[in-house]
Specification:
By secondary structure, the chain is of the alpha+beta class. It has two domains: 38 residues, no CATH class; 123 residues, endopeptidase domain like (from Nostoc punctiforme) (endopeptidase fold (from Nostoc punctiforme)), CATH 3.90.1720. The chain contains six helices and eight strands; from the N terminus they run H-H-H-E-E-H-H-E-E-E-E-E-H-E. The strands form two sheets. Strands 3-8-4-5-6-7 form a six-stranded antiparallel sheet. A two-stranded antiparallel ribbon has the order 1-2. The longest helix is centred in the first third of the chain and has 18 residues.
Length: 168
């Protein structure tokens, strides 16, 4: 009796490890697409951890004054804050200037923003500003008037000056 129970358990458990993309019931096209989805689907926990890392960086830099060309806690500018955040939190090297950062990655719509996406604004004749999205509602950045802060994307000033977003 114990042998039968053991054999039944082994057979039942072996079904749990089957690869669904190698099943004979799936067409090769469908199996390939399913396999790609399974490999590349972002996990909610990874999105949360990106936001947690961003908030950790923010808490460390909150209130740091704006200084054009600055890269320290004595003063930092918007692109420097973005560069420093990605280096410190994600070990990812981004270019130093807003203009260079704007050429990275792929375009993403404002409604599809995720934590870590870069948001760009036109704030003057030849002036651009960059921040890091926390979600589709808020972004963190080095403000010229308030230093490192979190702002709402639906704030009338930011709505009016929003230009585009990218996923680096």
């Amino acid at each position: 009796m114990q042998k039968i129970l053991f054999l039944f358990t082994v057979i039942a458990l072996s079904g749990c490890t089957a690869n669904p993309t190698k099943s004979n019931n799936l067409s090769p096209d469908y199996a390939s697409k399913l396999s790609q989805k399974l490999k590349h689907k972002p996990k909610k926990s990874s999105i949360r951890s990106v936001k947690q890392k961003l908030l950790s960086q923010y808490n460390s830099w909150k209130g740091t004054p704006y200084q054009y060309g600055g890269l320290s806690k004595r003063g930092i500018d918007c692109s420097g804050f973005v560069q420093t955040t990605f280096k410190n939190q994600f070990s990812k090297q981004l270019p130093r200037t807003t203009e260079q950062q704007a050429k990275l990655g792929s375009s993403v719509s404002k409604s599809n923003l995720k934590a870590g996406d870069l948001v760009f604004f036109k704030t003057g004749y030849k002036k651009f500003h960059v921040g890091i999205a926390l979600d589709s509602l808020e972004f963190m950045h080095a403000s010229t008037s308030k230093g490192v802060i979190i702002s709402k994307l639906d704030n009338p000033y930011w709505q009016k000056n929003y230009r585009f977003s990218i996923r680096p």
